[in-house]
Amino acid sequence: MLAAGTLAGTIIGAGVFALPYVVGKVGAATGLFYLCGAALAYFVVHRMYAAIVVKNEGAHDYAGLARIYLPRVPAFIASLMVVGELAFALVVYLALAPSFLALITPFSPFANAILFWALGSLFIFASLMWQGFAELAGTLFIVGIVGVVLVAGNGLPFTVPAFLPLDLPTAFLPLGALLFAFMGRSAIIPVVEEWRAAREKFSLSRAIALGTLVPLPLYAVFVFAMLRLAPSAAPEALNSIGFLPAPILFLLGLMGFITLWTSYFMIGANLKGVLHLDLKVPTWGVTLFVLAFPLAVYCIGFDTFFSVVTFTGSVLLALDGIFVVWMWLRAFPAHRFRAFAAPLVAIFFAALAYDLLSRTGLL
User: Fold this and answer.
1) CATH code, 223
2) What is the pLDDT of residues 122-141, one digit of tens each?
3) N or C end of the chain: which has fewer CB within 10 A?
């Protein structure tokens, strides 16, 4: 349960707030299929990565495993991917925070972003005790938000069609958000360490399945509760429900802020560790990058939540998934489940191609 909880707590985060929008675009039944497919795909990816970690007991980081199994250039790119994923995850939270803070402060979106950045950056350098408490608090507050939205929509009719016509862009639209919402690879090494340390060995595969699939019902409840309240959900879900009573909006804003704030400094602390311990960046460089990068990227125009989520999921996390499958194929060249590799890589390539083509205006 502890191992599964570690994985589930890592997965559950800001990605949930983009899901009502994409499900509303494809239809309720189609959206549920996408959610289940993403959860299943990431169970396989997480299991593949766990198998690589188990096989290499002395390797304790993603970059080290990439150097073992990938050629030099892809291994170097994979190492950069880890930094990119975490750094852009900070930008995702920074872009989303103003929509929550607008419910509890009178400030402008930019002022709210600066306030959030300052508070989040301060706690990146807090003690591990605070960070452990933050992970639990963030997960509990997301569950609280889901509960409030569910109660607020109780009794309202559900009007989103089960199926909506899909053209090519719409069919690929959900991929980036889904990849961001279900990715939990960074928790796999701690999960394997829990498994190794256990006095009575539990099923690692079952723990990974539970940790990956537990977010699925939580996400589904939030998505359909939000679509009941606002059938035409905005890319930032809570921007669609400004008609709710002020006390409910204040509560949602406060819980959302705490959720994002705790996740922000947890991700920042993780990024700090990767830069310093894995890539040997000096302390001053680590501090400068962790503090300045998210704010700089936000200020140059990456300030739209859905755009940053889809870029992070479709480009950085898609490449991450491709590298994990590639490493697994090289680590287990005769594995009986090699057939799973091709459809997984196809999903990741589809997400990557869609994002690049749509951003360049070719799709």
Assistant:
1) 1.20.1740.10
2) 888 765 556 556 767 788 89
3) N
